[in-house]
Amino acid sequence: xxxxxxxxxxxxxxxxxxxxxxxxxxxxxxxxxxxxxxxxxxxxxxxxxxxxxxxxxxxxxxxxxxxxxxxxxxxxxxxxxxxxxxxxxxxxxxxxxxxxxxxxxxxxxxxxxxxxxxxxxxxxxxxxxxxxxxxxxxxxxxxxxxxxxxxxxxxxxxxxxxxxxxxxxxxxxxxxxxxxxxxxxxxxxxxxxxxxxxxxxxxxxxxxxxxxxxxxxxxxxxxxxxxxxxxxxxxxxxxxxxxxxxxxxxxxxxxxxxxxx
Amino acid sequence: xxxxxxxxxxxxxxxxxxxxxxxxxxxxxxxxxxxxxxxxxxxxxxxxxxxxxxxxxxxxxxxxxxxxxxxxxxxxxxxxxxxxxxxxxxxxxxxxxxxxxxxxxxxxxxxxxxxxxxxxxxxxxxxxxxxxxxxxxxxxxxxxxxxxxxxxxxxxxxxxxxxxxxxxxxxxxxxxxxxxxxxxxxxxxxxxxxxxxxxxxxxxxxxxxxxxxxxxxxxxxxxxxxxxxxxxxxxxxxxxxxxxxxxxxxxxxxxxxxxxxxxxxxxxxx
Lengths: 261, 270
Ligand SMILES: Nc1ncnc2c1ncn2[C@@H]1O[C@H](COP(=O)(O)OP(=O)(O)OP(=O)(O)O)[C@@H](O)[C@H]1O
Ligand SMILES: [Mg+2]
Prior knowledge:
The structure holds 2 protein chains of 2 kinds.
Chain A: H1 2-31, H2 37-52, H3 56-80, H4 87-125, H5 128-135, H6 139-177, H7 182-192, H8 195-222, H9 228-258
Helix pairs in contact in A: 1-6, 2-6, 3-4, 3-6, 4-6, 4-7, 4-8, 4-9, 6-8, 8-9
Chain B: H1 3-6, E1 7-18, E2 21-32, E3 36-40, H2 47-54, E4 62-67, E5 70-71, H3 77-84, E6 87-90, H4 102-113, H5 118-131, H6 147-158, E7 165-169, H7 177-194, E8 197-201, H8 205-211, E9 214-219, E10 222-227, H9 229-233, H10 238-245, H11 261-267
Parallel strand pairs in B: 3-8, 3-9, 6-7, 7-8
Antiparallel strand pairs in B: 1-2, 1-4, 4-5, 9-10
The structure holds adenosine-5'-triphosphate and magnesium ion (MG).
């Protein structure tokens, strides 16, 4: 019994490490597969459009509502201490440091990550990947690399848009509706937010998230069993793994950046 | 002329497994330069697998696969891709790129492997599409094509670069009699005019026999017969006879390996 359980854990562990190694090799090969700028730039632009621009709506709407909710909740608590003028500071720091990068990344994993996995999986099951190989074109270069880079480039931009729209939503609720004095709302924000500590750290986080999400998404797509269920499972795995990775990574990065370790 | 000058592809002692299942056991095969060689055999024997082994998408478990004197499994990724730019392959499923039009599908190999100016690419693509009767369909998307049309577009794409070797996986499947005649003629013409080496995988005995210079018949992981169409059609070997004449009963199994039907039915639900 015990031996069997141990054996099962062992073989699970080995197969996990194997997959992890394979995905690392895969990432390595895609990363260094982009020397031909003239041919690949249009592909990159196309992917930035479908990965980034197509995610704009959901990112902006979510950012807007989260900003508004933050302002409502924050106002509620801050008025108890008579310090509602600190609302701008509270909202902007929360968004820039945490919620912007993390929530935008979770949305991005659900919106763009799953689409990437499904698209690549379908290309594999309809033999388009094999077709590319036989034409003498490396699919890692042609299909994977532009999608990967598009994700890494778009994620920080989307996170910044998320935070900006959120702050705007918070000012609508806080200033225009609840009546916080607009001068102190904005001045407080400007005083407390620091570019290098808050804005830059948030951007670094979201670059890391973009890297991890697209890595998981393109690998799951490329590694999928080329059947309908296989693609369905791979898409689910992308969302689950990417979400867990984002939250875990966020804790580590926050500890390093803000934990005074 | 030595053997390796004459043969574009040489397969020696090829053994290939899928899991525990033997697909090929010590198979030898020569594909002569500039000729049309047909590979025939029952469904599921591994004809598509053979094309993939030749194209380097699968690696043999043992034995050698030499294309133009190069042992495929030993090539680096770069050398393999360079060699493939001289091969064209018509996939059984067509494998068209679904995100671009018919025109762009055929133009794709030209764009990635040549520096031709745009108007030249246009001319070549239109000529290839004209050859398969689909010049008028150039602006359609792949999902707007019928199965037979998609296959002919894929054929046009496979020959876009005038490759040295063209592998056709089931080129006649799903074609009406007219289109079938055109495709048969086209393959013959390309081979004679441009000196391609061609491999045709097909079940259509009559069409294949009419254009092939040499035929291999594969079954049960081995070559069960080979020769000119005449020799193969009139062979005395019972297995060959059954396959070529399409007789339901005989030594060539129609069924995927399984236990006896009676046993299977009587076994009931466990
Ligand atoms: N990806 C795969 N995994 C496992 N087995 C496979 C796979 N692809 C093919 N096979 C097996 O390999 C054998 C040969 O397949 P292949 O596609 O080469 O047959 P084929 O001769 O081209 O048949 P058909 O004429 O029906 O196209 C089949 O029996 C199939 O079950
Ligand atoms: Mg086949």
